Amino acid sequence: LVITNWDYFFTLFHNLFFESGTWQFLYSDTLIRLFPEQFWFDAALIIGGFNVIMSLGVLGITWRWGRRAVKHPMTSG
């Protein structure tokens, strides 16, 4: 969603978490000059990429443990 339609995602995020109109600033405002829209786009891509990599890592580890458990089941008693 972030990559395909950034403007929609940006507006949706702010409408969910902020009161209407409190998150819109002029381009000349200091906050916008310090953190322009490209900054937030790049941050979203980095965070999303990190989450994908970590999820794949966890998936790989649990898949390997699952295979090991099937090959060597624990016996009780």
Helices and strands, with pairings:
Blueprint: H1 6-17, H2 30-34, H3 37-71
Task: Describe this entry's structure for a reader.
The chain is 68% helix and 0% strand. The protein is an all-alpha fold and 77 residues long.
Which structural class matches the secondary elements?
mainly alpha
Count of discrete alpha- or pi-helical segments spanning 4 or more residues: 3
Number of domains: 1
Number of strands: 0
- In which range does the helix fraction lie? 55-70%
Radius of gyration: 21 Å
Beta-strand percentage range: under 5%
Overall 3D shape: elongated
The arrangement of helices and strands along the chain is HHH
Q: Can you summarize the main beta sheet? A: none
| Poorly predicted sequence stretches spanning 5 or more consecutive residues | none
- Terminal CA distance: 52 Å
Mean pLDDT: 87
